[in-house]
Amino acid sequence: MNVSSLVAETVWEEIESTHSVTDDQISILHFLFGKNFERATRIVDQRGVKRIFGEPSGRWIFQGAIEFGGLMIKKAGACVVGESRKKEEYFCFAEHYCACYSFFYDIVNRGEQLCCKHQLAARLAACLGACVEVKVSDEQLALLLSKL
Predict the structure, then answer these.
(1) Are strands 132-137 and 49-55 parallel, antiparallel or unpaired?
(2) What is the pLDDT of residues 120-140, one digit of tens each?
(3) Among 7, 79, 134, 136, which is disulfide-ready with 121 (CB 3.0 to 4.6 Å)?
């Protein structure tokens, strides 16, 4: 893990422990993630991240519904958002994976970013407890996961 990732992880842990974010933490995350962090904060501010619980297992994933550029996009996975005018759907797991174009182009191929805005929004919403809670059957949850 590189230094930037270690610093980010420390900040995420602090935010999660207090369920609040300070100006200093925002500054650090903005320095590390730039415009992706700005976009992620807009997603969270719009209450665009849902946490879906399977019953009776208690397993969960995130789902996001984000308005960005006047377009409402709904997605299953850890978080979601597309800037384009087309409706795009992405599965995203905050610390490991996102199905968006930016994840594969900027992160995997070019290594220019640590993570995409969808991953940041999922992580921020989870740390702040800013997710909308939704309960579904384990079968419905399995169907969402099967679309990965």
Answers:
(1) parallel
(2) 988 999 899 988 788 889 898
(3) 79
